Amino acid sequence: MHQVAPVIEVQNLETRIDTKMGPIKAVDGVSFSVRPGETLGIVGESGSGKSVTALSLLRLVPKPAAKIVGGAIILDGEDILTVSETRMRDIRGGKISMILQDPQTSLNPVFTIGSQVVEAIATHLKAAQRELLNRAVEALRHVRVADPKRRVEDYPHQMSGGMKQRVVGAIALGSNPKVLIADEPTTALDVTIQAQYLQLLKDIQAETGLAIIFITHDFGVVARMCDHVAVMYAGRVVEQGPVQEIFSNPAHPYTKALLSSVPSVEEDVERLYSIRGQPPAFWDMPKGCRFAPRCDQAMSKCEADYPPTYESPAGTQHCASCWALEDTEWTPSRS
Amino acid sequence: MQRYLLRRVFQSLLAMLAISVIAFALSQLSGSPVDSMLPQDAGPEEAERLTKLWGLDRPVHEQYFIFLGNALQGNLGQSIKWQGQSAMGLVLERLPATLQLGGFAIIVSTLIAVPVGVIAAVYKNTPFDAFGKIIALLGQAMPNFWLGIVLIWIFAVHLKWLPTSGRGGLSHMILPAIAMGWFQVAALMRLTRSAMLEVLDSEYVKLARIKGVPEWRVVWVHALRNAAIVPLTYFGLIAGSIFTGSVVIETVFAWPGTGLLAIDAIRGRDFPVVQAVVLTFAGVFILVNLLVDTLYAYLDPRIRYK
Q: Is B306's Cβ below 8 Å from some Cβ in A?
């Protein structure tokens, strides 16, 4: 099967944050890749390192506390961890962009919608003001903002939350990036608006071949949006693979547990399943598998060493890091 | 926008009216002005003549309206100490000197405080930030009259770099402006810093960076425009304290402004002049605050569209 090359490839990414409790690795050896037109979902609970991973991809981790200390991010053939800050500014918004979680706070309250979209375009394109404004109107029309010609004069406080999130979309997509990171973009929206917004992203993706990295903790959104999923726990990817595989055949106990915590329409249960215990503190990481203290199937091995990554025999690039896979048909991953 | 401004103008007029009541009440509380205006050997007929002339035999509210009517025409009566000069005339004659010094102090403090505050926020917890903190602490801790005297002692008496007192060119303004402005610089700087820290942490600043906007533009355009509201509010307040402060500073530096006039007038129980000073200071203060409110609306559309 011939497949196009990934537009973004993350290899062994490590991001360290200095905290009062000492330095922690919020992202610890994360690898994944996304092809044009594909969507990768990154799921995990709060504090699992999803958002720091996202910010690392833009080299926008909060300075000076956080620092990317290892790995590579190959975006469109270029390792962006090695380029200069000036080059990185061209890449940000130009080749890779991001939609933030809360539309209420993502737009600058003192500038018009138009000037904010224009700025996003003008940063990457030298053109006359007239031309820039036309492009901004086009970008707003693209994300289905009604009457964009009139709306460019508006200020953020004159728009609804859903409309604002569309504007954020127009800003992110204004310079036709190849990769879009969406950090829980619909969490703050009403359910109906949420569905519309997800559909909008899918339509734009179908049109432009955009690669999307979708960060969420909502498996419903994953099922709807994503082709592949990476499950993160305590700064590491514990399992990744095609969406159907993960849903029908989860290999890692954490993924299984997460999936059983999702309410189902078919089953009527008194109490939802919940994983016992708390995620480990970053400054007090277990030596072995990080999920071991909460895992029902933990063995002595799990507490001693971090498990290697095993690949599924199905040949679907379904991988998981768990000692329980050691003596099965799963094979140790080469990479 | 127009409605907002009209409302603010109306409120300013109300404030001015309230101040005129206070100024009037002050003169009532300080005893009969006739006693202080008459020569010591004047007889009761003379007192009666003046009482009639000034309308002091009428009910209080009528007296107030006479006072207000006169005040609106800029007539606050004759000075007692400086015979033959009108109270308002004296104040207006001295006002440019005070506005010059106060304006200079305010502008220079703002031009120093805001950039330093912004840079301290961007480079927080660095030596620059610590240096700013020390400057601020000194400014907040030193009383301005003391600072004025020390400055004169060092730079005028010992080093002989700058004149000790009086009004003249730029060199005459430097020491009094520092004495007046240091406290303000400190406060403005700390306010700018904390407002910037909050804004720099916001999502829209993150989005600006995601867009690829250069860092200087993120800081000085995206963030500062939002953070400016806080120091601007304080700016309206310090405009007032610069003028009340001028009473002290002008005395220390023998600066021939309204503040010095106020001190002389109070010493000479020259109530018409004191009244004129109070009303003028209040007027300038209200005007500056009206200006600040207008700037608010310019800076923040949420105020403009309310």
A: no
- Going from N- to C-terminal start, the domains of chain B cover 2-72, 88-304
Strand pairing category for A179-183 and A211-216: parallel
% residues pLDDT > 90 (chain A):
60
Give this complex's ipTM.
0.88
Closest CA–CA distance from residue B52 to any residue of chain A (Å)? 60
The SS3 assignment for B2 reads helix
In this prediction the pTM is 0.83
Taking only the tens place, the pLDDT of each residue in A31-44 is: 999 999 999 999 98
The C-alpha atoms of residue A210 and residue A99 are separated, in whole angstroms, by 14
Q: What is the mean pLDDT of chain A?
A: 90
Distance from CA of A107 to the nearest CA of B (A): 5
> Residue B299: which of A93, A106, A110 has the nearest Cβ?
A110
The pLDDT value given to residue A1: 46
DSSP bridge partners of A319: A240, A311
A269–chain B nearest CA distance, Å: 39
Structural domain B88-304, CATH architecture: Orthogonal Bundle (1.10)
Mutate to test the interface with B, among A58, A61, A85, A108 (most CBs of B within 10 A): A108
Output the pLDDT for position B49: 80
Q: Which domains does chain A have, with CATH numbers?
A: 8-95+177-288 (3.40.50.300), 109-176 (no CATH)
Q: Which of residues 177-216 of B touch A (CB under 8 A)?
A: 202-204, 206-214
Do residues B167 and B97 make contact, with C-beta atoms less than 8 angstroms apart? yes
C-alpha torsion sign, points A282, A287, A289, A294: negative
Assign A109 a pLDDT band (cuts: 50, 70, 90). very high
